[in-house]
Amino acid sequence: MVAELIFVGTELLLGQIVNTNAAYLCRNLAQLGVDVYHTCEVGDNVDRIASAVRQALSRADLVITSGGLGPTADDVTREAIAEAIGRRLVFDPKVMEGIEELFRRMGREATPIQRRQAYVFEEGCRVIPNHIGSAPGLLVEVGDKHIITLPGVPRELQAICEEFVFPWIAERSGAGIIKSLPLKVCGLGESTVQEMIEDIMQGLSNPTIAFLARPGEVTVRITAKAQSAEEADRMIAQVEGRIRERLGDNIYGVDPQTLEEVTGRMLIQAGKTVAIVETSTGGWISSRMTDVPGSERYLLGAFVLPSTKAIEREMGIRFDRIVGEEVARRMAEWVMRRCRADFGLAATALLEVMEGYTETDLGLTYLALADGSDVISKGIKVIGDKTTMRQRVSQAAIDLIRRELIR
């Protein structure tokens, strides 16, 4: 099999970003026995991208594009491919539903501009799910050849490749079967996870272990190449057992499971209920927990109190500061009693500078969980933009419930 790669983005031609996707794809395609004779970088221009696609189809069995699948006006890869192969794009409601669900999980609402990402080719097209970002990939049949479109964000591209693209190529190139098992870890950073399983990784060539870090969690992906799916499963299981033994309860599930889904299911199985109160996080914790089907069985109430005045008004308690361990502990007890829940979860976080705080306090967070007999609490410091910090805080808060249920 011969493949040609097209990387779309004017920022590549201006040298504003380094094309790490090229090295990643070429390295992995070589391992699959796929020959790559040509690659090119093209700006965000329909005619030039279409010309590159036509040329690639004239000399390769498989064309892979990266980038230009987003929602803005300069994301024109789909339109360019449509022009190159003379095929129409149509709106796919199911793809749009997936995009809207992703935004709900992030505590946001999809805007009309996101509809651009829900257009697919009218015929000979298969949607490739993107569990990390909003732009799905596409697999397009063009006679006896294929085009695969991938997002340009490296972590999204890599996840899609390992979950779908590489196994699909392996099956057709005669390289055998490639299977992956993505274990999802929270409560530990990527470097810590790597250190904890470094001796397991040493000397491994098949299966291999790779890491994908997201705000608040790390995915440990075990990938095996074999002549059959059963053999690949056996190879993966041997390594999985050693990793699970080492990482223990820090592993909360397998992709695409989310922490809120796993925790919600545990609450239902335990017959327990929870009430939530949070400050400065815009309701992210509550939103994630309510996104889980059946959440009405365990979530009895949720409060977003973004200021000391709001806390004083609802709780009838005066606090000089909105963030602090004692604040979190008293909030957890209050919301538990207020909603008559088995657990009261509280999160106080400083995600933007407020009166009485400085820039050095930014990211300061305290979490607390009350159960009627005791209150456990912890302080953490999160970094990043406001959206990233909210994701980290909500992840740590939900994980506090999960770990208490295990205990």
Shape: globular
Unreliable segments (pLDDT under 50, ≥5 consecutive)? none
Quaternary structure classification = single chain
CATH level 3 topology of the largest domain: Molybdenum Cofactor Biosythetic Enzyme, Chain A
| Rg (CA only) | 24 Å
Mean pLDDT: 92
Class per helix and strand makeup: alpha/beta
Annotation, overall tally of beta strands: 17
Under the CATH scheme, which architecture of the largest domain would be assigned?
3-Layer(aba) Sandwich
How much of the sequence lies in strands comes to 25-35%
Q: State the separation between the terminal residues, measured CA to CA.
A: 52 Å
The level 1 CATH classification of the largest domain is: Alpha Beta
- Looking at CATH, the homologous superfamily of the largest domain is MoaB/Mog-like domain
Strand order of the largest sheet: 2-1-3-8-7-6
Percentage of residues assigned to helices: 40-55%
* Main β-sheet description: 6 strands, mixed
Describe this structure in words.
41% of the residues lie in helices and 26% in strands. α3 (46-59) packs across α4 and α10 (259-270) runs parallel beside α14 (386-406). It is globular, with a radius of gyration of 24 Å. It is built from 14 helices and 17 strands. It starts with a strand and ends with a helix. It has helices at residues 10-13, 20-31, 46-59, 77-85, 93-105, 154-173, 190-196, 198-201, 229-247, 259-270, 284-290, 308-315, 325-339, 386-406; strands spanning 2-8, 35-42, 62-66, 89-91, 119-121, 125-128, 137-142, 145-150, 177-186, 208-214, 217-226, 251-254, 274-279, 299-304, 343-349, 364-370, 375-381. With 407 residues, it is α/β, with parallel strands linked by helices. The strands form 4 sheets. Strands 2-1-3-8-7-6 form a 6-stranded mixed sheet, with helices on both faces.
